[in-house]
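Hi R.,

Here's the chain you asked about this morning:
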Amino acid sequence: MGREIMVQRDADGVRGIILIGSEGRESRAGDEAPEGRTVQAGNKDPEGRESRAGDEVSKERTGRERDMVPEERNHSERGGRAEGRKSFEGSKRRFYFERAAAEAGISISYYDWKDFPFPEGLPNIGNSIVKIDAPEWKSSRLKDLDELTGRYREQLRLLSRMPFGAFFNHPGDIAEVLDKRKCKKRLAENGVAVTEMYGEKFSGREELLDFMRENRIYQIFLKPLRGSGAAGVTALRFSPVKGKVVLYTCAALLQGELVNTKRLYRLEDEDAAALLDPLLELDCVVEKWHRKAAFQEYCYDLRVIVQDGQVDYILPRLSRGPITNLHLNNHSMEFERLNLDGTVTDSIMELCIRAAGCYPGLKSIGMDVLLEKESRKPYIIEMNAQGDLLHRDVYHENNIYKRQIEIMRNMYIRSDSAESFCFGKTF
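And here is the predicted structure, written out as tokens:
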């Protein structure tokens, strides 16, 4: 069941923290495709054709770009290891969380999702706070997203019924935030500004384009209802006069199946049409393509970490394309370099704290926030209940995980005066 660090009662009253996660797989240039093949970020597209100029949105970084992101670039040059560990995202989460706990003198027990359901009688279970990281998902087929997230939701439901002392992020709220439509609906109902979502579902390409034509909408985002890491996310531009469709996406057709890759493609006309229909067979959220604010020649959005009612980190993510996820050869920089007006910064923080208040069962939430180009008004794009790993933080001060340990310590202190330590719920 994975390595276990002995749980003990610490001097300040913390009895122990349980971390549930996945050691994951080694980071690669592309996700594993069906039949064990990998879609490489090399010089061929998923169908094996030589790349043409303009096919791939990601480009070599300029000298200025390299100056902007030395830590993310140089981490791979240092061997991509954290104190001798392989470069697994799961291992990074575990390693830096355990480091923060060790510095505070707090013990951690680790259990891996591959061993779930866990046996009865886990030691010290009723006096432990549980932090839940996501399981490893081995498939890159987008049609598997519903099954994978459905299985995870069931695991979270069962976990919520175990007699733990408390959850750092409650399984029920983690499960709801996985659903982009349901999460945005809750935020909007509570007066939180979110990027506009069109309520319609579309059975195919022609129905979608007819809707866009009739409503004079010329660019949108399509996103599978569940999933993260830009899986299946597609930016679509439509020129009804010319009948031209352009897509920017990490999805690719491989042997007739839609798979997720770690490479951004620009597709037009027949290639775009071939991908749109299978993408719309999934349950997709359709959103307005808001114009993002720009820094120099890059557009950007923000990953904001809110923990226990306060903003602990804001990370700008910069891109020349419409999708800003950092694993797509995009890059980050310090928030201060944006040199935003104080009122804009205040509005970002107020929005994110208000959004976090919609999910009181989540002590830590990662939010993707858009600043509209002209108005600088912030909007929540989406939320991630397990989006706390930021390389720019862990490779420097590791403040996000240190703050989580502080919050858990305070949860124990509060529980000492309460009638019951267990303030979880089932769903």
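One quick note: The first strand starts at residue 17 and ends at 21.

Cheers,
M.
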